[in-house]
Amino acid sequence: MSTLERVKGLCKSRGISVARLEDELNIPKNTIYQWNRISPSLDKIKAIADYFQVSVDYLLGRTDQKNLDEPETIAAHMDDDLSEEELEDIKKYIQFIKSRRN
User: Fold this and answer.
1) Rounded distance, CA 73 to CA 15, Å?
2) In sequence order, which residues have a C-beta less than 8 Å from that of residue 63 and are 6 or more positions away?
3) Single pTM value for the model
4) SS3 at position 15
5) Would you state the pLDDT for residue 38?
6) Cα gap 18→21, rounded to integer Å
7) Domain ranges in the chain?
8) For 58-102, what is each residue's pLDDT tens digit?
9) Is the distance from CB of 48 to CB of 7 less than 8 angstroms?
10) C-alpha of 86 from chain center
11) In whole angstroms, what is the distance from residue 75 CA to residue 55 CA?
12) Are the C-beta atoms of 57 and 46 separated by less than 8 Å?
């Protein structure tokens, strides 16, 4: 999936148009649509990543994981010998991360 397709998908999931995203981030009109022909600048990629709270790697197609703080990443690194209290703390942390995205 191209950077343009990823940005369009993120816009759709947020219920905004690409034009509105460009307006909100002070990106010149139709700049994002040009990304099907030219590479985007790093400053614009960073701004969009921050806006949608996703990683730059996700926008560039280097990973399908939108954010490094996603629960799947946490779960992949948990030890089998965690106490119930530790598991509860992890669940609370996951909920905290989810609440920050909304």
Assistant:
1) 27
2) 55, 57
3) 0.65
4) coil
5) 92
6) 5
7) 3-59, 71-101
8) 999 888 878 755 555 555 556 667 788 877 887 887 777 777 665
9) yes
10) 27
11) 19
12) no
User: Cα dist. 70→22, 24, 35, 41, 89 in Å?
Assistant: 26, 26, 27, 26, 15
Task: Report pLDDT digits (tens) over 31-69.
Answer: 999 999 999 999 999 999 999 989 898 999 888 878 755
In terms of Cβ atoms closer than 10 Å to its own Cβ (0-12, 13-18, 19+), residue 58 is: buried
Single out the residue of 41, 66, 71 nearest to residue 54, CA to CA: 66
What does the alpha-carbon distance between residue 18 and residue 33 come to, in Å, rounded to a whole number? 8
Encode 35-45: b = buried (16+ Cβ within 10 Å), e = exposed. Answer: beeeebeeebb
Residue bearing tokens 């139709």 = 30
**Residue 27: partners with Cβ closer than 8 Å, 6 or more residues away:** 21, 44, 47
Q: Domain 3-59 has what CATH class?
A: mainly alpha
